[in-house]
Amino acid sequence: MADQPMLAQLHFGREDAERDVTEGLLLRGGFLRNAAYRAALSGRKMLIIGRKGSGKSAICMQLMSDGEGGHRGGKVLVTPDEAAGEEIRRFELQGLPGDSAKALIWRYVFAVHAARHLVDHAKGAHDGGHKTDSVKALGRFLKQNGEAPGGGGRFVERLAQGARGLQTSLSLEAFGVKAGVDLAQSPSEGARAARQLEIVERGVARAFADLGCDGVVHPPLLLMVDQLEQVWSAEPDSNSMVIGLLLAAKHAASLYGRSVRFLLFLRADIYDSLSFGEGDKFHGDELRIAWTQQALRDLALARARASVGDELTEERLWKELFPGTVGGEEITGHLFGRCLPRPRDAIQFLNLCQEKAWLDHERERITEADVAQAGRQFSEWKLKDLTSEYLVAHPFLRNLFPLFQNSGYVVTRAALARRFETAAETLHHDFPAYANTLTLPGVIDVLYGAGFLGVRRGNDVVYAGDDGLPVQPHETEFQVHPCFRVALGATTPVDLRRYQPQFADARVSSGNFSPAASGSSSLNRDDRLLMQLARSCHSILAQVGRAVALTRDVRDEITHQVNRVLDEVNGIPPGAAASVGVDVDDHLLCTAHYFTTLAAQLRDSGLEENTGIGDVVRRVEEEVRRLRRSAGGSYGSSGDSSGY
Fold first, then answer.
1. Tens of pLDDT, residues 438-475
2. Dist CA 365 CA 347 (whole Å)
3. Residue of 114, 276, 310, 626 with fewest CB within 10 Å of its CB?
4. How confident is the model at residue 68 (pLDDT cuts 50, 70, 90)?
């Protein structure tokens, strides 16, 4: 490895935290201790909420580690597989609503994990603690109910046994309770299960108190639940499973006090889909993971150093290993502006750039071409990944992408309404269960929430996560996120026909014109027509410049195309148009036709009149009429030349 170029050793880590931990990069310094991690470590927040790939599991893995940055006390991680999830989803108790029933099974899981921890902990951390009556009672309870530490059995099997115990009767003799005696008068299955669980929880709380495990002498037990998205299905029983988890964690945190700390890692789309009466009580426990471009840049440097060594400087990474700019845009702005703001996307894009340069071409530094090639593949990945991410909640998402293909990435509400109208019948037919969502406002909300569309607010374009405010009814202009534009073929702000110069640069700039023409001090007709065309270009550009309410990207695209016309005019030598093969009349009329097309495309773009686009369109049309009058005729058959 030592004799390899630095680019060959450069690696930004794996896309999943579990493999990052296994291979050691996450623990060698590739983890960024952000606000979410600090809040989780300190216990200030219980709910860590973020999108897929935002780093929830990385925080979880870091806390589970025994090295620097890991939790110093006992720790338990619960990651239900599909079988365990199905067991919880199907758990019901007569006399209790679904949320409350599932809260009881989660409380049982927490109580059992705490009891198992206490039995082991008392042996190692408390001299003679395992002989305490309350701890011995927990040991007997666990053994009698098939939950003893080291007793084997998969989690799902023990969970199923516990569920049956709650639905019928647990063995509670360890706590001095005879089955069928103290619980016989319970009015319902749910009431009996709640009573049994209270006895178990009191036993656990008593053992914590007897051992003095209050989070002061030593850190508390950290009990974490992660990867619920693996068992969630957007069905009512799945939502009840998650709501039950929240209710159980809230209850257990209050019951066990500082002895146990709970951390629930939840995907944002799952959490935001929940609706229950006590939802407002969790706001103070929430922390949403948010990534800025600067934070992603810091993460990239930390991971790069973890792979090649601390001698790698920020300057060397972004100006030597990577090109300083791509297409005139500063490299980090280009890279991280084309990722959704989450570590997984950034890691994938950066690794892809390295692979294009080193694996494909054995280059020792990444070039602009490598970044561009990686960007195309990355954009295709992300469009597919977005479909997968929301397949459960929004199975129709992929069918919305054609509304944005091969068009400008700036889209207005009016233009989107026209496109949606043509697709609505098919969407409703294919996804009848989602008819209430498949309306124009519903589609906009879904696409904004998924990060596919941003909304223009003032001079900025805001994407979900930048601002908690949802799309408002009066907001009319949206932009496809840069991450998806290449895959959709939406790489320009508006769908304007690109101006194609009529004349080869070599012919125009050859200087092959007659001395008589170059020496003439008077303007001939060709020169006057070309000057008129140049004035028309300047007039249009001035009007575009005055359209200050127009989206900057749209303004820049119009300006770019008009400047292409102007550049070609300025490249024709004065007095020598004919000698270099330029038919000025034909050129003028062809350009007028291009401007007519430009005006029609701008008028059909759906951009609001109050942006100034109407004034731009009218100015373009005025200049078209002026050019045709100057040429002394209307557009004829010569306008069918290629490129227009």
1. 999 999 999 999 999 999 998 889 998 766 789 999 99
2. 18
3. 310
4. confident
Query: Which tokens hold the place of 502?
Result: 């009529």
DSSP string, 437-465: T-SHHHHHHHHHHTTSEEEEETTEEE-BT
For residue 77, the SS3 value is strand
Residues whose CB is less than 8 angstroms from the CB of residue 84 and which lie 6 or more positions away in sequence, other chains included? 155, 156, 159, 231
pLDDT of residue 506: 38
* Alpha carbons 468 and 462: distance in angstroms, whole number: 10
Stated pTM of the model: 0.81
For the purposes of burial, counting CB atoms within 10 Å of the CB of 169, is it exposed (0-12), middle (13-18) or buried (19 or more)?
A: middle
Contacts of 500 (CB under 8 A, 6+ apart): 642, 643, 644
pLDDT-derived band at 537 (thresholds 50, 70, 90) equals: very high
The answer to whether 445 and 469 are in contact (CB under 8 A) is no
78 CB neighbour count, 10 Å cutoff: 19
CA distance 80 to 151: 19
pLDDT by residue (tens digit) across 589-609?
999 999 999 999 998 888 888
For 302-333, letters b (16+ CB in 10 Å) and e give bbbbbbbeeebeeeebbebbbbeebeeeebbe
- The residue type found at 362 is E
Listed residue (77, 81, 32) closest to 58, CA to CA? 32
Q: What is the pLDDT of residues 164-218, one digit of tens each?
A: 988 888 888 998 887 554 555 667 889 989 999 999 999 999 999 988 887 677 8
Which stretch, 131-135, 233-237, 541-545, has highest mean pLDDT? Answer: 541-545
Measured from the Cβ of residue 425, the count of other Cβ atoms closer than 10 Å reads: 9
Q: Determine the pLDDT at residue 280.
A: 87
The beta-strand segments (E) located in 226-358 are: 260-267, 286-288, 325-326, 329-330
Neighbours of 204 (CB within 10 A): 26
Structure tokens at 317: 């990474």
Q: What is the CA radius of gyration of the chain?
A: 33
Alpha carbons 564 and 543: distance in angstroms, whole number: 17
Query: Distance between CA atoms of 627 and 533, rounded to whole angstroms?
Result: 7
Rounded Cα distance, 24 and 615, in Å: 60
